[in-house]
Amino acid sequence: QVQLGESGGGLVQAGGSLRLSCAASRRPATSYAWGWFRQTPGTEREFVAAISWSGGITYYDDSVKGRFTISRDNAKNMVYLQMDNLKPEDTAVYYCAADRATPAAVSTRMGDYDFWGQGTQVTISS
User: Fold this and answer.
1) Contact (Cβ atoms closer than 8 angstroms) between residue 104 and residue 34
2) Cα dist. 56→21, 51, 71, 88 in Å?
3) pLDDT tens readout for residues 15-37
4) Alpha helices of 29-125 — where are they, by DSSP H?
5) What secondary structure letter does DSSP report for 29?
6) What is d(CA 92, CA 29) in angstroms, rounded to the nearest whole number?
7) Sign, Cα dihedral of 75, 4, 99, 35
8) CB 3.0-4.6 Å disulfide test: which of 19, 42, 98, 100 passes with 115?
């Protein structure tokens, strides 16, 4: 079992930046792909970005493409989400997740991810 923990959320003005981090409790025995999702009250959790085990494949939702960058440091068991040019509609709880079944690929589907963090709140003021 791998536990994930997000950090780096907060309150920023529109146009600002935040960097979210996700730490794994231990180095996984197998390779993992990673994803970031977000959720607002009363809505379903939605895909934001994903990265393969090697980091060679990344994928973004159209709403964040060109503004967000996902990266990983396997030696540190960390994954990051750099968020620039933030907009009020980016306000949400952000979750990181790990997919152990297809580490060489990326998935946008929640059901493909095996482990989840507890989430970190991101609030963008206009």
Assistant:
1) no
2) 19, 8, 10, 30
3) 999 999 999 887 665 688 999 99
4) none
5) S
6) 31
7) negative
8) 98
Share of the chain above pLDDT 90, in %: 78
Report the distance separating Cα 64 and Cα 80, nearest Å. 15
Query: What's the pLDDT band for 11 if we cut at 50, 70, 90?
Result: very high
DSSP states of 36-57: EEEE-TTS--EEEEEE-TTS--
> 110 phi and psi, to 5 degrees?
-55, -40
Average pLDDT over residues 87-109: 92
d(CA 33, CA 50): 7
Per DSSP, the three-state class of 75 is: helix
DSSP bridge partners of 81: 20, 70
